[in-house]
């Protein structure tokens, strides 16, 4: 998790030399045209590899001194046009190789010592050039093509962002260009803890963008048998030792773009999940998305502050810092996309945001951000996979305040005159031990350091704003898994759990009457452990998805991923086929993988999964979600391993239970 990956290098495995040419005479007239490619000094031409920025931008090279002539040139970086385009123009490099070949022919005419360095005196060698054979010329051109193309492949392009220049790499499996670890904000350390993200400082050096960035500090999923926030609870905290190999300096993003000459492409921005306490960009490879879009998408994967670093709240944070720092990081990254994605071939007016689990929950936050009126707009469409909506309290409610005081106490700042300033001085490793303790101490399968209603970015509870139709974005595609809740319910409690007890632990602010009403909703759904799994699945993941669908009305599509076991997160490996553990999909059926993955990219391209770029895609018509039709597409398979794609009506009983959860959303803080 979060390991560094070596930069990808793409060698030149195939070069075609269609040029079997015979030139009758090459002399000064031909070589004068190569002045921009060579060091020129009176009647001598020194052949040396020039900085690629000079070649590509066709900047006329000034005369150089004899000392510079004798020096071995250092391979330079490749800047791509005045508009900072970043695709490698291999045709231009092939042309460059041909031009350089003309100069090298002169050296062949003089002697056979080599092809990389030489001098030419026109008055002595003009006649010898005219006698070169077609075979020797063809061999020379082929050799130079190989050298030039190899140089191009080994010197990936640079993009100039104004504050820094980043040099990417070519993925040797896909041929796409990767820019890994681009800094989009300053390090949120020291005095910048719990502050709004700031622009990164400027640097003049070219930054390599060929390794995965540091992860943000990671926390834990709650693992306790009861919630410490139940009013009758006397639960004590456990201590954790150790911490993940992460960094507080982690506000980076990755960009993957097609390699050849495409502009104004749709953009997909992936927000990773992990309960707002874990996850990183390194787990998700944008190269997986490009082929699903026919090479017509630019992908961006972002990181944001997590756990206590990104979602600590309370009155003190409000007064002396910033609430929802992790969400503000995400918004800052989306603003970065608007400013810079055109330099990577993307169209900032055609951005789709997409996330899974807490990433999908983050999508909800940006849909309702700024009362649903973020200006200028940061995206045109949204996609959610397993929308995650835990209790989202007001920043100064009882539970956020208790969490803040727990962090202060465990950090040794309880007696400090300014608790927040003291926290900013705490060593990062100490603070993350507190982070691990606080996050891991929660009720099994839950997270406590999550977004809050801050009165500014998030003005009201999500369900309240969705009900009023206050939305950013014009279209939605949402997918849930059939058994979302199973991994988040302790199977060891199968013989002891009761539904009312489970409800009280999951939503500590429910009244007794509401708990009883909730238990009645699930009484017919099997044993208490099955009821608990259904409650977790529906209240936290599935019903919030339907709340989103209702808000987008006739501009949305709903899917259900049912491939067994259809647990939370199982769908991820079917669009990020190398995600997390870098293994193949659990059910590696080519037709299913293609149809399912392409549906998301079709939506990114056209805001409609039914507008297909691939004519071989066999997915039937995906119906729109409407208040009258309430149709969704189920992705499943038969026992004989035959893909199943079918349209169904949403389950009436499920929708009724979602109505219940919406009716008590003030108490569940959703």
From TrEMBL:
EC number: 3.1.1.-
EC top class, as a word: hydrolase
UniProt-listed Pfam families: COesterase
Keyword Membrane (UniProt): yes
Occurrences of domain Carboxylesterase type B (ranges): 156-629
Cross-referenced InterPro entries: AB_hydrolase_fold, CarbesteraseB, Carboxylesterase_B_AS, Carboxylesterase_B_CS, Type-B_Carboxylest/Lipase
Keywords from the UniProt entry: Hydrolase, Membrane, Transmembrane, Transmembrane helix
Bias-annotated ranges (Basic and acidic residues): 229-240
Record-annotated membrane-spanning stretches: 90-109
Keyword Transferase: no
UniProt-listed Gene3D superfamilies: alpha/beta hydrolase
Signal peptide: none
Chain intervals for the UniProt region annotation (Disordered): 227-246
MF terms (GO), sorted A to Z: hydrolase activity
Cited SUPFAM superfamilies: alpha/beta-Hydrolases (SSF53474)
Cited PANTHER family: CARBOXYLESTERASE
Family, similarity comment: Belongs to the type-B carboxylesterase/lipase family.
Protein name: Carboxylic ester hydrolase
Species, as recorded: Leucocoprinus leucothites
Organism lineage string: Eukaryota, Fungi, Dikarya, Basidiomycota, Agaricomycotina
């Amino acid at each position: 998790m979060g390991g560094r990956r070596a930069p990808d290098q793409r060698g030149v495995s195939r070069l075609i030399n269609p040029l079997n040419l015979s030139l009758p005479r090459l002399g000064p007239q031909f070589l004068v045209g190569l002045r921009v490619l060579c060091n020129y000094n009176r009647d001598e031409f020194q052949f040396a590899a020039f900085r690629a920025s000079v070649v590509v931008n066709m900047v006329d090279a000034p005369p150089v001194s004899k000392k510079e002539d004798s020096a071995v040139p250092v391979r330079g970086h490749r800047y791509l046009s005045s508009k900072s385009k970043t695709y490698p123009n291999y045709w231009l490099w092939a042309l460059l190789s041909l031009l350089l070949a003309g100069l090298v022919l002169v050296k062949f005419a003089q002697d056979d010592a080599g092809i990389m360095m030489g001098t030419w005196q026109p008055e002595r060698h003009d006649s010898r050039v005219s006698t070169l054979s077609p075979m020797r010329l063809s061999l020379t051109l082929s050799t130079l093509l190989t050298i030039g193309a190899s140089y191009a492949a080994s010197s990936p392009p640079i993009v100039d962002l104004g504050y820094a220049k980043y040099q990417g790499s070519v993925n040797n499996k896909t041929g796409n260009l990767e820019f890994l670890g681009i800094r989009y904000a300053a390090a949120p350390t020291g005095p910048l803890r719990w502050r709004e993200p700031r622009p990164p400082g400027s640097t003049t050096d070219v930054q390599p963008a060929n390794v995965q960035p540091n992860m943000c500090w990671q926390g834990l999923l709650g693992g306790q048998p009861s919630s410490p926030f139940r009013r009758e609870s006397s639960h004590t905290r456990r201590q954790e030792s150790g911490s993940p190999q992460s960094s507080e300096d982690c506000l980076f993003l990755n960009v993957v773009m097609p390699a050849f000459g495409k502009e104004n492409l749709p953009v997909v921005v992936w927000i990773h999940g992990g309960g707002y306490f874990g996850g990183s960009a390194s787990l998700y490879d944008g190269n997986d998305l490009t082929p699903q879009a026919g090479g017509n998408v630019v992908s961006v994967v972002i990181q944001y502050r997590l756990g206590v670093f990104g979602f600590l709240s309370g009155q003190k944070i409000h007064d002396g810092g910033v609430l929802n720092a992790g969400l503000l990081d995400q918004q800052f990254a989306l603003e970065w996309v608007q400013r810079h994605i055109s330099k990577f071939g993307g169209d900032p007016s055609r951005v789709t945001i997409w996330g899974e689990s807490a990433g999908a929950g983050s999508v909800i936050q940006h849909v309702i951000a700024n009362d649903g009126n973020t200006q200028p707009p940061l995206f045109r469409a949204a996609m959610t996979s397993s929308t995650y909506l835990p209790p989202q309290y007001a920043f100064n409610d009882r539970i956020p305040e208790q969490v803040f005081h727990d962090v202060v106490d465990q950090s040794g700042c309880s007696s400090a005159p300014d608790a927040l300033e003291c926290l900013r001085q705490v060593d990062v490793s100490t603070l993350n031990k507190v982070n691990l303790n606080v996050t891991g101490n929660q009720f099994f399968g839950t997270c406590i350091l999550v977004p809050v209603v801050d009165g500014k970015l998030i003005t009201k509870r999500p369900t309240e704003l969705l009900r009023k139709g206050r939305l950013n974005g014009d279209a939605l595609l949402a997918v849930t898994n059939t058994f979302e809740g199973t991994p988040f319910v302790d199977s060891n409690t199968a013989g002891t759990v009761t539904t009312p007890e489970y409800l009280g632990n999951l939503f500590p602010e429910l009244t007794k009457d509401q708990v009883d009403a909730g238990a009645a909703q699930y009484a017919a759904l099997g044993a208490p452990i099955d009821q608990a799994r259904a409650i977790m699945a529906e209240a936290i993941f599935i019903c919030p998805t339907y709340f989103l669908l209702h808000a987008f009305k006739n501009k949305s599509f709903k899917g259900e991923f049912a491939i067994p076991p259809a647990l939370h997160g199982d769908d991820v490996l079917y669009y990020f086929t190398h995600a997390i553990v870098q293994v193949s999909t659990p059910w590696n059926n080519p037709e299913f993988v293609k149809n399912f993955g392409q549906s998301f990219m079709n939506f990114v391209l056209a805001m409609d999964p039914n507008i297909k770029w691939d004519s071989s895609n066999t997915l039937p018509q995906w119906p729109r979600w409407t208040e009258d039709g309430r149709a969704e597409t189920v992705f499943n398979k038969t026992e004989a391993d035959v893909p199943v794609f079918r349209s169904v009506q949403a389950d009436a009983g499920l929708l009724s239970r979602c109505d219940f959860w919406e009716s008590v959303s003030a108490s569940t803080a959703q």
